[in-house]
Amino acid sequence: MSKHRIGVYPGTFDPITNGHMDIIQRATHLVDHLIVGVARNDGKGPLFSTDERLRMVREDVETMVTNGATIEVQAFDILLMHFAVQANCGVIIRGLRAVSDFEYEFQMAGMNARLNPNIETVFLMASDRHQFISSRFVKEVGRLGGDIRHFVSPRVAEALTERFAVEAKNGGRSKQVQTR
Predict the structure, then answer these.
(1) pLDDT of the chain, 180 residues: tens digit per residue
(2) Parent domain of 90
(3) Could you give phi then psi for residue 72, rounded to 5 degrees?
(4) Cα 20 to Cα 64: distance, rounded to the nearest angstrom
(5) Could you tell me if residue 151 is inside a domain?
(6) How far apart are alpha carbons 122 and 100 in whole angstroms?
(7) What one-character DSSP code corresponds to residue 127?
């Protein structure tokens, strides 16, 4: 009998991009149940509230082909390793886009291994179609009026367009409502 493999793919997902979706889809080949952990991380000054980000991630993964794996989306605001233990995860999934990601992710994986050596970190390289996509760049391109439809789902592109319209109306300040 095989062991039920549970993994967590953590991130801020502000917003979720096609690159994130690629990693999520590929992670379903590795685990039976994947938890997409949306970090509250208000210190990063997210464009979207946690509830908005949860909704966008849920909507985007809703119709995904999952290779028989189940996907759950949860917010968390505790240490990742504590979240992983609470969720009974055996693996943390992380995406790598470029060499610049590696040093940070390598240090994080080492720290996590010291905190809990029973939870492995698995790195998935971004596919060549997505390795240049980052939430930060998508927001920058969108804020300046560029076409972001190739980088995010239509729902996320619409949410970004609406948010940038509010920012423009408010003199560059986003009117974000933080709900918990």
Answers:
(1) 456 899 999 999 999 999 999 999 999 999 999 999 999 977 778 999 999 999 999 999 998 888 899 999 999 999 999 999 999 999 999 999 877 778 888 899 999 999 999 999 999 998 888 888 899 999 999 999 999 999 999 999 999 999 999 888 887 665 454 443
(2) 6-131
(3) -125, 145
(4) 12
(5) no
(6) 17
(7) P
Tokens of 89: 């995860």
Distance CA 28, CA 68 (A): 8
Residue 127 lies in a domain: yes
Amino acid at 88: N
- What pTM does this model have? 0.89
Pure H helices in the chain = 18-27, 50-61, 80-86, 99-115, 135-143, 154-169
**Is-contact 47 159, C-beta < 8 A?**
no
Which domain CATH number covers 97? Answer: 3.40.50.620
**Catalytic positions, written as ranges:** 20, 44, 97, 135
- Looking at the domain assignment, is residue 58 inside a domain? yes
Would 137 be classed as within a structural domain? no
Number of domains, the chain: 1
